[in-house]
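[Automated response] Your request has been received and processed.

Submitted sequence:
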Amino acid sequence: MGEGHAGRRQLDTWDDNDADRPHAQATVWVEDGSRVDRRASAHGHDEISALIDALRNLFPGRAFCLLGGVDGHRTVWRFSWELIPESAKNGSPSVSEERAHGG
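Generated structure:
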């Protein structure tokens, strides 16, 4: 799996509904995998899932979107993301307008 695909898939798990997330996580993270950034860190499927739930509850109606490319080396990836309206996730015509106006 290339870094770009892996990074996109990781963000996709953040938008998966609760029933789909355990299967999706298993395809992206190993059981003892980690998610680390300057705001929060989580280790293992349970902590990662709890972090996802906390962010989704904090930002309801938003989806995670990859910004630019993914830098990767072996099993570590670095990428930027933004929150966009869920309605814009699938490429609705108003995605640029919604981003520009803060949704």
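Summary generated for your ticket: The chain has four helices and four strands. The longest strand covers residues 62-73.
If you did not submit this request, please reply to this message.
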